[in-house]
Amino acid sequence: MSQRPPAPPSLQELRKEIDAIDEGMHRLLMQRADIIDRLIQVKQTQEVGSAFRPAREASMMRDIVQRHRGILPLDTVESIWRVIISTFTYVQAPFSVHADISVSEPAMRDSVRFHFGFTVPYVAHFSAQAAVEAVAKSKGDLALVSATSSRTPWWLELEADGAPKIIARLPFVERADHPAALPVFAVSRVADSAVVTEVETFSVRVSGWNAEVARALSPLAEIVAVPDTAFDGAALLVSVTSATSIDKIKAALIEAGASVRSTALVGSHATRYTVPPTGSKS
Question: How many other C-beta atoms can be found within 10 angstroms of the C-beta atom of residue 102?
Answer without folding.
Answer: 21
